Amino acid sequence: MTDRPDRAFRSRDWFADPARSDMTALYLERFMNYGLTPAELRSGRPIIGIAQTGSDLSPCNRIHLDLARRVRDGIRDAGGIAMEFPVHPVFENCRRPTAALDRNLAYLGLVETLYGYPIDAVVLTTGCDKTTPSGIMAASTVDIPAIVLSGGPMLDGWHEGELVGSGTVIWRSRRKLAAGEISEEEFLQRATDSAPSAGHCNTMGTASTMNAVAEALGLSLTGCAAIPAPYRERGQFAYETGHRIVEMAFEDLKPSRILTRESFLNAIRVVTAIGGSSNAQPHIHAMARHAGIEITAADWSEHGYDLPLLVDVQPAGRFLGERFHRAGGVPAVMTELLGAGKLDGDCLTVTGRTLAENLTGRTTTDREVIRRFDQPLKEQAGFLVLSGNLFDVAIMKTSVISPAFRERYLQRPGAEDVFEARAVVFDGSDDYHHRINDPALGIDEDSILVIRGAGPIGWPGSAEVVNMQPPDHLIQRGIMTLPTLGDGRQSGTSDSPSILNASPESAIGGGLSWLRTGDIIRIDLKAGSCNALVDDAEIECRRGEPAPAVPPSKTPWEELYREKTGQLADGAVLEFAVKYRRIAEETPRHNH
Question: Which of 490, 483, 448 minimizes the C-alpha distance to 465?
């Protein structure tokens, strides 16, 4: 064990306060009932929380039920005392009406646990997409030493000799089913074959993206994000993570020292290079706001758009997470960016060293999966930020623009990167599924599918429903993708180049609220604009009409969420909560 500074940890105020022996007795006695000793808790060693996100309700994170034992081993060997506690479950696939409700709820619960209990530092166990931002948001609010341990993706999925990626296979198989190429039974088989082991999505969906973001921010050990859940290295990293968090506790290395504007800009750049999820935009904004860092929509254009796609992983590419890890994972990608002068290598990380120091020697030997910076899969592959009379801010994921989509909509002579389309408007996903094949809608290849009522207030929570597929008759003609637009989100595993996360949303009077089927929408990617070609007088007339109805709140949390949550452009955070920062600097009052 190395020499360490003599520190009085915050847990001392619970277990070793000489001025309040009565309270010390109260705090100590019940920890005895499962075998801890007073000597341990009063020894001055740091108490390390393990924020357990794994459960049977969260299969993407369930691996942490096993990994926690190795985290404990690392904590004990480094001289700390481990205390594991549950976190509100988050599971995108199964939570209804949407798991987006749970990010802010898990954040609230974790803040209260970290602040109100004798915890000196914490291991944030992450996996399913929203567990990463919720943990980091809470760590910033409380500001005790924190480190992220991701659970890792599943092994690569295979179906009849073909790679099938989680999530992505669903969207692609839906089109095959509509085209009559596969049966419903094969549809289900392809989906289940994509999930061969423990772990989160094996595609570059939101889970893989957000764990890569945690590493880019400097909050994970180098190389942690992409290790598949079943690999032995995952357990080894769990041990090293537990060991390192004890050192961080003694060093008082808090999120406020690691999370800077430069580190968030690094994360934005990494999202582009890996072909990351469009959900990264609201999550990065949410984490930055809770850290007191200003990140704007303009930063995605200035720092993230004009960068290349380097990673050939679904949905933007061909391969899956297992091969991405073997190719070098996130460190190899960051090495390419650093070598091109596109990362700030001076940012501090949880290792106690800079990002550049961590990346020494971390190159790839698999150039099929991770490309050289000057030999990318695509140029200018970041999120395109759009604005216009339908919204103030929306984004378009350009790394998934297919050659067919580009040829049909973006390469018209004399109007490159500009197209016009007739709007077909749906009020929520039930309306879409009920009417998409209605011939009366007249949907053709010159249509744009629009969905509203899908934002944080309208849904509530913001739903992954914007990646709408064309009607069956177009798919059967070989038209697999139409332009789509909405005030909700889409799955990070989707290969649809949607315009999404539109803010303000229709439920609070955004432009989609007055849009009508038949209106012509003009999208100009060069100018970054998206406008309905409707004159101002008509727009004012429509604004006087009742807004589209939204479903009533069904739970107390849905009502409170709607009351307190902002828009996707601003991270969809609980607006009242962002003023709370570094709250652990003051120990809470005694409870008796």
Answer: 490
